[in-house]
Specification:
Chain lengths: ~325, ~260
């Protein structure tokens, strides 16, 4: 990671930290919710980037782990267990377990087959959630906000906001250390040339599986926070379109960088939030067709903005990470 | 087929690598045909043969990338036929690739450090930056010096010249501290000077470890090899000292042509 990326990361985090006071100054309380959402999706995106950008594993079912994390909170809450100290570890543990199982099977394949099998597993979970009438089926279920034994009150928007912020910051620090560690070297090199890694003596499968499981675990945390933010859980969280959106955030922001997916999540959600309004200014009733504009914007970024948004900020050091 | 010149020695000392009745075919194409071969410890054993003779397929079977249809490969007396590529590398069987296989994004030093890391126990270490790990980088620097790339250590591997990349390839194999190295055309695509340089490097390794060398550059082969095996259609038609191979009629007919090699 070069110096520029570190500064960009710190600047972004500083901006996120300053959002609550800024929303007061500009009297836009709504934006605190938007940025909280951005940070939660950023956790999902950056966890995907660990395997997609650094590890070269194109997982097209990453939303599944967000769904598992969210449902863990929802189901525990349904049975009256709303202790966050229990919910959050269980949500991450469940995602880790599912990630381990799906990863163990998916990583036996590669290329297009890997994409399809990760997608298939995620869809399997989606339809499972749809079929669970007890937990709301298609309509989803409501979830109470987690309780933290009086230490933390998630019903206070400010406390909830900074909990998400701290989670994101810690995950970025953890992944920053991880990609440069011995483990990170193995993961990054395996993306480039797995055969060579095996010839050197690395049993690459187990390292890739470990990375896949770590990514699923972190995404599970994102899901648990998501359930808390919405106070609602639905199968849509694991729908393949949601997996696609997380992947778009990573690609849009810049694969193989840590700050890229965070910027990608911000750009994606801000566009989704504001595009209808902006279109409404041009033409009445155009707002509901915002996706017609969103699509070409995404295609343009992928086609012409190689390296994503991150590359705009880090022209010189952009591209490969090292 | 000629036998080993010193049969007694081969019986007494365990061969570094022993190939027994190895067969591999792809459909109707026979790539390895009942191959028997003993690679003695410490020798440079060249394997030559026309294109399509099955040289790279043989290396792939020795390194564990391909499973033979039949036959056995033993490494220092241990049957390794069923072992995977990483497991064989772990025992001390390193290989280089015909097509340069380095990690282009990483520096030359990182490439070699990664090879050192392969033998430094497991890599489930998540926190400490690998680049600050002297247990990886000191040996890596040493290997780069040894192979003549000491001054290019910090250069991104993709920016190295072709010859330097081939050297790096050898350095990576060497950094895993192998007892046997399988080199698949280390001189491929090299100019005359680069080839001569590579011959010097390999010459410097002679005696320190066993090398199985596949190479088309006959000057290099005859300069380096203690023994040569000639492979034609997957069969070893001759094995012997360079001068014997040069004089062998069958080899001349099949491969070297009638002129001087």
């Amino acid at each position: 990671m070069n110096q520029r990326q570190i500064w960009l990361t710190l600047a972004t985090l500083a901006l996120f930290a300053a959002v609550p006071p800024l929303t007061v100054v500009f009297d836009q309380p709504f934006y605190m919710d938007v940025v909280a959402r951005i940070m939660i999706l950023a956790i999902a995106a950056v966890s995907l980037d660990l395997i997609l950008g650094y590890g070269g594993m194109v997982s097209f079912g990453h939303a599944a782990y967000m769904g598992v994390g969210a449902y863990a909170v929802g189901i525990l809450s349904y049975y009256g267990i709303d202790n966050g100290f229990l919910q959050i570890p269980l949500a991450m543990g469940a995602s880790a377990l599912i990630g381990l199982i799906f990863g163990a099977m998916s990583l036996r394949t590669s290329g297009v087959y890997f994409i399809m099998i990760t997608l298939a597993f995620a869809q399997m979970l989606y339809f499972l959630a749809v079929s669970l009438e007890e937990f709301g089926g298609d309509d989803g279920m409501s979830a109470m906000r987690s309780e933290f034994a009086g230490l933390l009150d998630l019903n206070d928007p400010l406390q909830f906001y900074y909990l998400i912020f701290v989670c994101l910051a810690l995950i970025l620090l953890f992944l920053h250390r991880l990609v440069l560690s011995r483990f990170g070297m193995v993961i990054r090199a395996s993306r480039g040339n797995e055969r060579r890694m095996q010839a050197l003596g690395f049993p690459t499968y187990r390292y890739k599986l470990a990375a896949f499981t770590i990514a699923a675990t972190l995404c599970g945390l994102s899901g648990a926070l998501f359930a808390n933010l919405n106070e609602f859980v639905s199968p849509d969280a694991m729908q393949w379109t949601h997996s696609g959106e997380i992947m778009i955030m990573v690609i849009m922001g810049g694969m193989g960088t840590l700050i890229g997916p965070v910027l990608g999540a911000a750009a994606f959600l801000l566009l989704e939030e504001n595009l209808p309004e902006w279109m409404e200014l041009i033409m009445t009733n155009a707002g509901e067709h915002w996706a017609i504009v969103m699509g070409p914007i995404l295609i343009a970024i992928v086609l012409f903005g190689r390296g994503g948004i991150h590359a705009l900020f880090a022209r010189r050091g952009g591209g490969s990470h090292g | 087929m000629r036998c080993l010149p010193e049969e007694g020695a081969a019986v007494m000392v365990e061969p570094a690598l022993q190939i027994k009745g190895l067969c591999k075919s792809f459909g109707s194409l026979i790539a390895t045909d009942d191959l028997h071969l003993d690679i003695a410890e410490g020798e440079i054993h060249a394997i030559i043969g026309p294109n399509g003779a099955g040289k790279t397929t043989l290396i792939a079977q020795l390194s564990g990338e391909l499973r033979p249809d039949r036959g056995r490969v033993s490494f220092a007396g241990q049957d390794i036929t069923a072992l995977s590529m990483p497991a064989r590398a772990g025992l001390g069987l390193a290989r280089s690739f015909q097509i340069t296989s380095i990690f282009g994004d990483f520096s030359a030093l990182d490439n070699v450090a990664l090879a050192v890391q392969a033998h430094a126990g497991h890599s489930f270490r998540f926190w400490r930056p690998a680049s600050e790990d002297n247990a990886l980088y000191d040996p890596a620097r040493h290997v780069l010096e040894r192979i003549g790339l000491g001054e290019r250590a910090e250069e991104t591997a993709a920016n190295l010249s072709h010859g330097e990349q081939r050297q790096l390839e050898i350095a990576m194999a060497l950094a895993t501290d192998p007892s046997v190295m399988l080199l698949d055309e280390p001189m491929a695509g090299m100019g005359r000077d680069e080839s001569a340089n590579m011959v010097d490097i390999l010459c410097g390794l002679k005696g320190q470890l066993t090398i199985v060398l596949i190479e088309h550059d006959m000057d290099a082969v005859f300069a380096l090899a203690d023994r040569i095996t000639v492979l034609v259609y997957g069969r070893a038609i001759a094995t012997g000292r360079p001068e014997d191979i040069r004089a062998n009629e069958a080899v001349r007919a099949a491969y070297l042509g009638t002129g001087d090699a």
